[in-house]
Structure formats: C-alpha cells, structure tokens
Amino acid sequence: MDEPDHRNRLDAMVQGVLGTGMDRPDGPEKVTGSATYAHDGQVAGMLHGVMVRATIAKGRLEHIDAQAVEALPGVRAVLHGDRFLRNPAQGTANEAPVQGSRDIAYLGQPVALVVADRFEQARHGAQSVTLRYSEESASVAPDAETAEVPDKKQSSAGDLAAAMDRAAFCVDAVYTTPGHNSAAMEPHAAIAAWEGDLLTVRASCQMLKYNVNELADALGVDPEHVRILSPFVGGGFGSKLGISPETVAAALAARALGQPVAVALSRQQVFEATMRRSETRQHIRLAADAEGRLTGIGHEALVSNLEGEDFSEPVTQATPFLYRGENRLIGHRISRVNRTCAGSVRAPGEAVGVTALEIAMDELATAAGIDPVDLRRRNIPERDPGEDRPFSSHMLRAALDDGAAAFGWENRPQGGARQGDWLAGCGMSSASRVNMIGKSSARVTLHPDGTALVETDMTDIGTGTYAILNQIAAEMLGLPPARVKVRLGDSDLPKSAGSGGSWGASSAGSSVFLACERIRQDIAERCGCDEGTLTLKDGMAIADNRARPLAQVLAGAPLQAEGEIDKGKTSEAVRQATFGAFFAEVAVNAVTGETRLRRMHGSFAAGRILNAKTARSQCLGGMTFGIGMALTEELIHDPRDGHIVNHDLAEYHLPVNADVPQLSVNLLEERDPWANPMQAKGIGELGICGAGACIVNAIHDATGIRVRHLPATLDKLL
Ligand code: MOS
C-alpha cells in the first residue's frame, strides 16, 4: 500500500515558527483577567438563574411550590416543566439532548430554574423550593447480572480459554476503577440573550457546531438562529463536549422572560448535573509462553450509564492493537443505573482501560520473572492484530527505549529498599491512544498590510489552539507570529471538529494548513512561479531570486481562502495510534501507608509536534491526572440513593502541587504521513492513557502489595 502523497512540506519551510515552544498569544489576556470566560461576558439587563435539584434518585415530580417562591423578593419566575427535567445527553454525535418529562433518573438532576434580579435572590429562591415526588425504587449500583450486552465493542478470535490452559505464565484478575469527575477549572455557565428569534449564548463549550445543533434541538428552533460564543474555555476534559443543563435553562428562561439570563452551576452542581466518567470493572486475562510472548488477551468490561444513554466508556479501545496474542476476547457490558449521566472524561477508554491492562502486564512480568520493559518489547505486534492492518507508524519500542534511558531504568533503586520508614520502588507502563481526525474547516485572510487572520469555530480549552493555529499560518505564509491573528469560539465562523478526543489540533490545524496552501498557490501564480519553488519568509515572497514584499504582491486587495479536511479513505487502511511509556519512582510509608511519588517520566510520540511547550504541557497534565487516578481520585456514591457524596474539589481529591514532583517529558521525533498533511497526531490525552499504572506498579515494587482497585489509598497498603 502506498503512503498518502503529502509532500514533506513543513520540513522544508523556512519561517521557523512551527514546532517551537512559542508562548501562547492568549497568555497575557488570561493571566491579567481580561480574557472573558462564559460568565464574564456580562450582558446589560441580565437576570440570574439558579437551578433546583431533585433530591430523590428515581420517580416523578408531582408538585413544586412555584407561587410561594415567586413571591420572594427579586424572584421573577420559577421555571419548571417538561423542558427542564433532564440532562442533555452527552456525546459527540449530532443527537438531540434528552428532554422530556417529569421523570427523575438520578439524584441531583435539575428540575427547575429560579430566576431573579440578583444571583443571591435566585439562590435563596432555589434553596426555598419545596418539591413533592412520587418515588420509585432506584438501581444505584452497577450490576453485572442485569447489564446490557451491546453489539458493539465485542470481539473474539481463537480460543482464549485453551490459551490460558496452555500458558507457561498467566494472569487472571479483576481490576476496578472508580467514577471520575472531569474537574475543569471553569464551572459550566451560560448567558443567553434573544433578539427576536435570534439567540446568542455565551457558554463554555468544546464543540460549537454540535453544541449549536443540540441547543437548537432542545429549544425546537432552527440551528441557523442559534449562535454560541466560547472564545475562552477554562478546561473541558469532556464535560463540555455536549451542552449541559444550564445552557438550555438560560436560553429557555431568557425566552420566557424576554430578558437576558445567566445561569452558572456551582461546583456541586457541576459534579451532580453535568456528567461523570463511569466506574469500571475489568476482567483481564493474559496468557504467555515461556518467553513471555502473549498468546492470549481477554479484556471484559462492565460500565454504567443512565437508561437510554448511548455513551458507554470504551474501556477496551486500545486493547485490540496494543499487544500481540492470537487468542482474544473483548467484552463490554453496560449496567443501567440511577446515577449522574456518564460521558467522556479525559481520554475515555484508554485512560482507565490501558491503566488496568498495564497493571496486569506488570503482574505477568512478575510471574514470568521478566523485566517489565522487556515484556512489552517482546509483545509489540507487527500489524494491528485486531483488524489485521498495518500501523501508520509505531513508536512504542522507541518510547520504551527512550523512557528507560531517560529514567535510568537499568540502574533504578532496588525495589523494597527501606529508607527510614519509607519503602522505595519503581514501576513503568506503556501509553497508547487511538488517533482520530474530524471534518473541519477554517478561513484564512491575508491582508495587504502583511497581516493574516485565521477564523474557525474551533475552541481553545486550555490546550494551546490559539498558539498552534497561529504557528501553522505563520509558517505557511512566511509571517512573524505577531502578524497573525486567530479568532476562535464563535459558531458563526467556519465549522471545525471542535476540541475533543485529541483530534482538535490535527483537524483544525489541517484546515488552516489547507487554507494557507491555497493562498500560497495564489501568490505563486502572481509571482509567476511554481508553488513548490515559492519561499515566503518575514513578509516577503521570494521566487526566481527575486524578493518582493507581500504587500506589493497583493496590490491592495486581501487574499482569502477556506480549507477543509475530512477523514478520507486512507485513515481506514491503517491503524493510527499514538504511543508512549511512563516510568515512576515512589516511596510508601511503612507505618501510614502513604504513597509519595518521587519522580515520574514520560516519553511520547505523536507525529510532528506543533508546539513544543503546549504539547509538553498536555503531557504534564495527563501525567498529573494519572497521579490522581492512581492515588486519590474517586467519586463516592451513597449506596442508598447513588448521590455523589464528595461533590466538590475539597472532597474529590485531584493531585495538588504537593502531590506532584518534578515531572519530565520527552517528545520523540516522528512523522505520520497517514495522519494528515501536517503529519501530526493528537497528543492531548496520551499522557493519561496508562499513566496511573506505572505508579501502582511502583507501589508493588516497593511493598509487594498489588493494588487492583484504584485509587491506591492508604488503607489498601496497610
Ligand atoms: Mo475529551 S474527554 O474527548 O474532551
């Protein structure tokens, strides 16, 4: 099969901007507070809405004392009824949010909105509401027996049971991971304003083209009449892929009252009423021969979600291609529970799936007496074993080698060595994440004054989109970055794939690349040369040994072009994935069971790196969430009614500075010609995919205790 015909164009470019660790152009606005996040965009005459939550797990809302609350000072209205009663479905598809009835499906579900002149009045009103229900018995815990078995996410090959019987070494164990909250810094908020039948909403969203359709569908209006503004997003981590209840509520209230309405969720409401990552139960079986070569892999997952929700955590997404082994069994079950809607959170699938698999691989290494890095090396497949197709490029071995060298794996401290009260140990794990791209377009305008404007409805969720789109345009058009302006986060701009699933940079970036390519062709024509021989640098067009300022070439009129990328056929011919390797050293206190991470290293490959600094930051963020997954993060549901007990950042323990030692990251040189014209793959989520396992494996090295149920809290180590 031939590689796609993408010239290695960016490698031949001369501006020298792309790939550098250029600072974010939006950085100063963010750190000085002038960047307007959703709730900062104060609109004249706006009212405030506060949502009211259901206090039962399942049943029907029979009565709400709206009149009494409407009599409170400042309260304008208590909005309730059919269109307020359910969380819009999460998900990346173009689906209608579930709207509907007075039926309550989980504790914490929004059931009404109190709107008042001032926020405090609305909050007081919301706290004063009395609700009467008819209650039904709820299923608040996942149940393997009654779980659904969907057609998707199941596969098998060969005979796993026979492979397990024949194996020289094997692992057969159950691993569990708890639910997680996305924990974006900026809570979900929306300000809605109607002008006639045109709606403008300032909201915190990841994927505007889908979000517009979801909102229009919820409201029963034409998507053409809906505009969403999301120029800055204070983190999404999946919770803003779909619209959340406050956005629908603000739009409905603004329509009902004829005035702009702002609705901001409290942190507790974010936990309860947006979404969660499903807890998982993973039965993993590994069979290996005497040399540690896998002959069988079984990975069967149980996850949960609300009745009727399509999404289910794709736990086994990377299992079919990560390692060799001819006998395979991939299974998936969904238990329907009365808990907050489950959706995509920080690398859905691999974050928890690769983590459990990599703990199991460590168990296999121990059982076989093989060095854990070596065990992985022996099991790297030549082709994608699940679908028998080649990899577009494969960097797991390179990442293992680079990471082992950078960490000093060969000379690591002896596992279990005691230093005072502390036991030291080291562990490692592989990283992998599928690579995706989505239909995306952008418009680029080159102005006669030698500045360029990049426009797309793409979002920057803290990932660095403003920086990389600037760099791509600057590189392609031969402009200093200060002469390029990037406009994002307005649904009226050309539609992009949005930010999610690590496809944002690849998709939106390629559309900017293609728009710039068309502008270059236009310039080449004007210069009378072939585009391949045209050099654009520092605002000059250089062709045939003649340099002319771009302003002169443009002769007073701007050049504009749109670029659009789509999946294309080539992406199905190959398996595209990113790879990496994690290494950690921990110390576990022999008296208290406390684990302190001493150091952690990650080596990653994701094709061309577009910005060395923001790519590294993405990896640091992923590794930090890996620390949380290994040691502290856990949604705790009350066994009686399923409500989330630890619904704030004081009780839901994300790693803080004191938990995170100096982390090191190496980004490996790679070009993936199959991925896109930039030969770059998505890196956003790679840093969490398996990260927790290196810490759990290090804990085993230090203590001999194998933790299979995350997080590895103190009680599990005593
Ligand atoms: Mo991501 S969890 O697909 O924003």
UniProtKB/TrEMBL annotation:
Taxonomic lineage of the native organism: Bacteria, Pseudomonadati, Pseudomonadota, Alphaproteobacteria, Rhodobacterales
Taxonomy, superkingdom: Bacteria
Residues that span the membrane, as ranges: none
Domain Aldehyde oxidase/xanthine dehydrogenase a/b hammerhead: from-to ranges: 32-137
PANTHER family: ALDEHYDE OXIDOREDUCTASE MOLYBDENUM-BINDING SUBUNIT PAOC (PTHR11908:SF123), XANTHINE DEHYDROGENASE (PTHR11908)
The protein's name: Xanthine dehydrogenase family protein molybdopterin-binding subunit
GO molecular function, one term: iron ion binding
